[in-house]
């Protein structure tokens, strides 16, 4: 039997809270129960929001919790060249295009379209889909704007990508925390429209880096929060386009704050460092998250 591989993949753009603790400890528990591997991946492609201080805090919190991961830890910021190679491939296959519209321009386009009585579609996070204009720009015009240093992002042409794949996609989702059974979930990448796969200055995005790294690191089981359930659709499409293996997924329950809302990284009473300073032990944290 091949070794099962789990991972916890925090972004060091803030301090860890109870939700992260649950995710990390659940991955650890499942890796142990299955004699599998546990990897830690630092998802720090956003070089403005991720800082060495936050990363040091993340590592200290995880050590304190008793998480034990394999070394070396993969830091995404050290692998931009690898992501760039794959981005080049998507460019040469004409599956991505440079998207120049600013947030303000997108807003104006949508307001205008809604004024004419058309409800503009939104993605599962409620963000309006990217308007189609840039996809139709002639190559000469794209080159001119890039040469003029216009800001842009590389977006996936989801229509072209789906046509390339040529069939419906699905993924296997575990039905419970013990990973006892799976069900098939139909992927709906079109619900996200033309997602960003890379920035002008950073040759990747969350989606691209995550699918490449899960494949490179041999991750067989992606166990992460329910908030990323819908994002899996985009990731399945990228895996298929890039010929990458598909892991099995479990999107676990979220730990909610006293107000019933998802926890945020802005420090509240649920920050791990704060709880530790207030005298909580790692066992207390386990109890608080129901493990
Ligand atoms: N880095 C992401 C986060 O902190 C998690 C990515 C994933 O587990 O796929 O939200």
From TrEMBL:
Keywords: Aminoacyl-tRNA synthetase, ATP-binding, Ligase, Metal-binding, Nucleotide-binding, Protein biosynthesis, Zinc. Residues 6-266 form the Glutamyl/glutaminyl-tRNA synthetase class Ib catalytic domain. GO terms for molecular function: ligase activity. Signal peptide: none annotated. Its EC number is 6.1.1.-. SUPFAM superfamilies: Nucleotidylyl transferase. PROSITE patterns: AA_TRNA_LIGASE_I. Belongs to the class-I aminoacyl-tRNA synthetase family. This is tRNA glutamyl-Q(34) synthetase GluQRS. It comes from Mesorhizobium opportunistum.
């Amino acid at each position: 039997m091949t070794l099962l591989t789990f991972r916890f993949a925090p972004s060091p753009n803030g301090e860890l809270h109870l939700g992260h603790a649950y995710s990390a400890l659940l991955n650890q528990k499942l890796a142990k129960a299955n004699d599998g591997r546990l990897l830690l991946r630092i998802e720090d492609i956003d070089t403005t929001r991720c800082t060495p201080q936050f990363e040091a805090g993340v590592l200290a919190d995880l050590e304190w919790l008793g998480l034990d991961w394999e070394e070396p830890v993969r830091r995404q910021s050290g692998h931009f060249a690898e992501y760039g190679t794959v981005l080049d491939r998507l460019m040469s296959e004409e599956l991505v295009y440079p998207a120049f519209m600013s947030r303000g321009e997108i807003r104006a386009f949508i307001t205008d379209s809604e004024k004419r009585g058309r409800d503009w579609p939104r993605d599962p996070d409620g963000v309006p889909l990217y308007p189609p204009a840039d996809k139709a720009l002639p190559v000469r015009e794209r080159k001119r704007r890039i040469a003029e240093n216009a800001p842009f992002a590389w977006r996936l042409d989801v229509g072209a990508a789906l046509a390339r794949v040529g069939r419906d996609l699905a993924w296997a989702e575990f039905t419970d925390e013990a990973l006892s059974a799976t069900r098939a979930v139909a992927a709906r990448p079109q619900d996200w429209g033309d997602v960003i796969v890379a920035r002008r200055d950073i040759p990747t995005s969350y989606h691209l880096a995550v699918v490449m790294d899960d494949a490179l690191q041999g991750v067989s089981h992606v166990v992460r929060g329910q908030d990323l359930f819908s994002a899996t659709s985009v990731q399945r499409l990228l895996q298929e386009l890039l010929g990458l293996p598909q892991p099995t997924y479990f999107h676990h329950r979220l730990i909610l704050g006293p107000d019933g809302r998802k926890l945020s990284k802005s420090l509240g009473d649920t920050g791990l460092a704060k709880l530790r300073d207030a005298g909580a032990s790692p066992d207390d944290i386990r109890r608080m998250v129901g493990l």
